[in-house]
Amino acid sequence: MKSKSQRNTNLEILRIITMLLIVAHHYIVHGMKGVNFAITNTNTYFVYFLAMFGKIGVVLFVLISAYFMIDIKFTLRKLLILGGEIYFYSFLFLGLAIAFLSPSELTVANLGKSLLPISHNGYWFITCYIILMLFSPFLNKFIKSISRGTHVKIILLSVLLWSICPTILPAMVSYPTQTVFVGNTFQYTPLVWFFVLYFIGSYICLYVDTNKLSFNKLFGGLIISLIIIYIGTCIFGILDTNSTAHLWWALPSFDITDLALYRLFSLENNFFVLSGSVCIFLLFLKRKAFSNKYINYLAGSVLGVYLIHSNAFGRAFTWNVFKPAAYYNSPNLLAMGIVTVFIVYLVCSGIDIIRRVTVENYGYG
Known about the structure:
Shape: globular
Distance between the termini: 31 Å
Number of strands: 2
Helix content: 55-70%
Order of helices and strands: HHHHHHHEEHHHHHHHH
Number of helices: 15
Low-confidence stretches: 172-183, 241-263
């Protein structure tokens, strides 16, 4: 269980790492959109490696948030500050897009997402996160009213329905001209999973004594989870009829094997993504707690990094500059990918720090 005396910088470091993982994922799915990956090209397997950590980053971020929110009172001010940050970047990039991007990139969908980013899925993660925030007071009251045993049963049932079943037994759904595997077993949605992760994160906060957990077992569980995710992605990538489909939401052509790959090894509710994420989270909690005000301050811009580089128009600016696709056949692909991820993170973090010390301090903050 956590100490409330000060912010644990271990978890702030983990926040930073989660966003680096998400940026690495976006380096592939956005930066290399449309690239035809060849199974005979060694770089394809580096691409799989960089892409596979993104959803682990998502799960970790929600687990960290749940771990703290179970004991934090929800306030309207926090919601307004977050909303101000979201709209600041949405309007900023809309203005930049109108000024610098070609008219063909100013689609109605992207314009709508910029004007209504929260309600109209400008950032799917942010929409789910805000809804989770709004429900957190009621979730906290419910969680604290039930027994530990009931809490465990809710988690086990939820993981069975929305993680284990979709991982090993995807649902059969009719798609226009054929029947394909998809991963929405038991009406799964990312929002449902955020609520499940809230129960898991809050349970860890309330009941888990990390001092009693074995480092070797946690580390072993992490390695096994990562190996399974990577091997699974590679195997289905080799079988894939459309080599980019498993790395991209919009699937132009696919068969049963193709879509099963993406759902089984890329979605945040994949069981091995969950198990690996929980192991990482517990490993960081096991570390001796300490507080560093500089690292804590830098971690305060993690969400800003997401809002900048994941913005519908921000993506165009970011990946047009670095052009990840140009390195697909280069022997330096992995090195360039890692360097680019750090550069994108540092630049976005710097931009957000400027916003925090100016707009947020003297404006809506």
